[in-house]
Amino acid sequence: MLKIERPLPHGGRLVERVVRDPKLAKKMAKGCPVYDIKPTLHFETGVPVRNVYREIMSICYGFFSPVEGSMTQAEVERILKERRLLNEWVFPFPLVFDISEEDYKKLGVTSGDRVLLRLKGEPFAVLDVEEVWRIDNPEELAHKTFGTPEDNPEVVRERFDKKHPGWVIYRSLNPVVLAGKYTIINEPKFKPPFDRFWYPPRKSREEYDKRGWRTVINHQTRNVPHVGHEFLMKDAAFIGDIEPCHGIQVNAIIGVKRRGDYPDEAIVEGHEMVHLAGYIKPERHLVTMCLWDMRYGNPLESMLHGIIRQNMGCTHHMFGRDHAAVGEYYDMYATQILWGKGIPSFGFPAPITDVPYGLQIRPQNMAEFWYCPKCGEIAYSGTCNHTKEKQKFSGSFVRGMVAEGVFPPKVIFRPEVYKVIVKWWKKFGYPFCNEKYVKEKEERLEVDLPHMEV
Amino acid sequence: MAHFIAILLDEKRLDALKGTGLEEKISDLFGGALKALNIEVPEEAEKGIMEAFTAARIDSRGAITDVPIAFNRVLFEEIVKHKSIGKEVFDSVLARADEIKEAAAKESTYLPPPDIDLSDIEELQKKPYQSA
Fold it and tell me: If you measure CA to CA, which chain A residue comes closest to B118?
């Protein structure tokens, strides 16, 4: 069989833990102790670095299938040791609902209890507590989460520290973990522009059916696309099977960002503009998003990306150099090593698609694209031999040009895409995420919640 | 290996370089779509830049980037003043580090957006292909 079929969700079935019947929802929440969700604050600066609501959304809508809730201590320990859930399926990161000792005392819950979680003052979800456990040493948890040069010499190059935003998230966790399954009882409504990019796995699979897509390649993004990204998408999509991939999906990670990233609004609309302005046919291009405060965990993040996009129904996933990376903590090809031959110290002696309970989505490991003045086009580094003449797309070079207010040439940014950056720049007074943007966004979030009386 | 800084040149900056003798140092980027002065940074100066501006880093091209916008502005002013891209330019720039830092602090909260016409994209966005 040469034709590739859509993969099953990771774990065999899609998790969907969303109650849409208001009567049932109210019944589930009635009489429960209430906890108002708070952002996780940086352990030193107090700046928001994560909001657990995003994890609850991604779990309950099935992006993280087969995960169903906040993890027990045994599950977290298994992940840190072997990157597997207790049911054997591979998974990269601990996901926990953490609260302070003070809040825990006020709540007064124990295993077997149900907690009503409120977001923006409205009922949002319930958490059925199976276990209460404590994070004794968040620094140790942070190190174990990302690996160390001693324990993971294949890919970890530097010891993680407070300059790494993902490490900071784990270092900043509260000490008490309420483990158990989440269920959303009051569906949040996405605000524009996010509302038209919300395709949780069941909906994305239905959308592929509607569009007649059997093969779909995913492009991970946390960027407004420059022309190099566009050519990566277009060229990687030739893989397919007996024909190029039917669909090109962009899945933007929406959540707390680091300074210098583009605002989320500009990222999703920038990608949309690629098809609105006709650079990729809209019939072949789907812009979507997933809520997650990025851990920047390079190979581990790529594993999560594979899980998310397999759950969405993608057959292929493109991975580049320094995938979801920041700094030089990991080898620049760590992701491609994981998908190409495996990382034994993380529990994968073979590629992550070739181990039991592994992934089914196929990697398309790509090198880089550059502009070649001699070829007069965007060229693939594996093909173009004009290495002296090449002009690389450096993200920081492009950001510098944007910040100086220079209108980028067409070979760097499509003019319409650049104008999307300017649109949001005018709104926020800044072209990139800065402390003000992060603080305000963490207050308003991407969603509003309908009023619900319990 | 010596690293470099690329100063992007718009029309105004190109005019300012006329008669300085530096015109021949102007290079084409992206097939001539952009003009730039690529300036090799002496080792001592690089050390000073990295110490003074902690966000600065070396990118995959070997360029020193992520310096404040004010840094590039001051660097260009000093180049024009000295009619040179030599060590003395960096000495003068680093002597103005406090002034650059002060300007950079304001840059972290506000940058003026370019005044360009957005009507074409507003028109396209009125008819999105994907709907909520």
Answer: A419
Half-sphere exposure of B130 (CA within 13 A, CB side): 31
If residue A380 lies in a helix (H) or strand (E), which one and from where to where? strand A377-380
How far apart CA B119 and CA B121 sit, in angstroms, is 6
Return the pLDDT at A274: 98
Residues of chain A found within 8 Å of residue B132, distances taken between Cβ atoms = 190, 192, 195-196, 198
* Tokens linked to A228: 């190099």
Domain layout of chain A by residue ranges: 22-190, 194-442
SS3 call for A452? coil
Report the gap between the CA of A399 and the closest CA in chain B (Å). 8
3-state helix vs strand vs coil in chain A, percent to 5: 35, 20, 45
Residue pairs between chains A and B whose CB atoms are closer than 8 Å: 118
| Closest-CA distance of chain B to residue A99, Å | 32
Does A162 lie at the interface with B, CB-CB under 8 angstroms?
A: no
ipTM field: 0.92
Find chain A residues with C-beta within 8 A of B10's C-beta: 406
Q: Which residue of B has its CA nearest to A327?
A: B57
* Fold assignment, A22-190: Sulfate adenylyltransferase (3.10.400)
Tokens standing for A216?
């779909």
What residues of chain A score a pLDDT lower than 50? none
Classify burial at A54, counting beta carbons within 10 Å of its beta carbon; exposed 0-12, middle 13-18, buried 19 or more: buried
pTM of the model: 0.93
CA-CA distance, B128 to A275, in Å (whole number)?
A: 10
Contact state of B109 with A430 under an 8 Å Cβ cutoff: yes
**Domain A194-442, second-level architecture:** 3-Layer(aba) Sandwich (3.40)
* Token code pair at residue A403: 């910040």
Other CB atoms within 10 Å distance of the CB of residue A390 = 19
pLDDT tens-digit map of A58-104 = 999 999 999 999 999 999 999 999 999 999 999 999 999 999 999 99
